[in-house]
Design brief:
51% of the residues lie in helices and 12% in strands. The protein has 293 residues and is α/β, with parallel strands linked by helices. It has 4 domains: 111 residues, Conserved hypothetical protein from pyrococcus furiosus pfu- 392566-001, ParB domain; 42 residues; 62 residues, no CATH class; 48 residues, no CATH class. The strands form 2 sheets. Strands 1-5-3-4-2 form a 5-stranded mixed sheet, sandwiched between helices. The longest helix has 15 residues. The radius of gyration is 26 Å and the shape is elongated.
Amino acid sequence: MKNRSALGRGLAALIPQEGEPAAGMLRVPLKAIVPNPYQPRQHFDEDELQQLADSIREMGLIQPLIVQRTSGPEGPATYQLIAGERRLRAAQMAGLREVDVILKEATPLEMLELALVENIQRSELNPLEQASAYRQLADEFGMTQERIAERVGRSRESVANTLRLLRLPDTIKELLQVGQIQPGHAIALLALDDADEQELISRQIVKRQLSVRQAEELVRRFKAAAGPRERRPRSPETEALEESLRNTFNTKVELYRSRKGGKVVLYYYSDEELDALYNRLVNSEPATSEYGE
């Protein structure tokens, strides 16, 4: 119950405040500390780490790491990190031999929760890392979205929307990972059921640097233009040709073929896009389809 109470109060309950004695504080060899296997953060900015390492080299490690002892009473002591992965890496870069730590005991669930809370409170997790951590809390520890929200200090709606990001295609996850689109853009894209359409609109968002509100409107108009329909099964060749046209014109394309001919429908969502399509069609060289009739 003591650990649970500490988790509910966040990192402030684990780190001694100014003027407080540091219970369980000791100095240990840096090489005796192993990372937290439940660390949700996967990407560490090397420049930021180097800046922190320079600061540690100059001023020392001001805030202790939180660890638990993993070795028995005999043999050299070893410790598993609970919180402070970024500081641990920077201390290694700074060439420290020993660091101050606070000893705690934590279950695997508490290790994940603590690392997650630490990163969220310091805004160090990207949305997909948060989503993966929430998924781990749900799948491995059976936590509901309400419980996760309570533990990390978020609303249930925020947790639910973050988890939805895991349903995105890998190409869009990459855009989110590198910051070319924001979580709000990604949530707007999830209103589309088709992965190809999601990728198509995501390219428009990046190319036109749309705001979240503009992206939502683009998705709404895209769905309205498509309308409810049932399309007959088509051959792989027709599907491939439609995808090739979609990539060529960078917009939604629908191809209808029959024995007597067919039609190609190109969609546009602004006068600028219409001008771009017109120029591409007028100025392009005739091409012969590799897929035949």
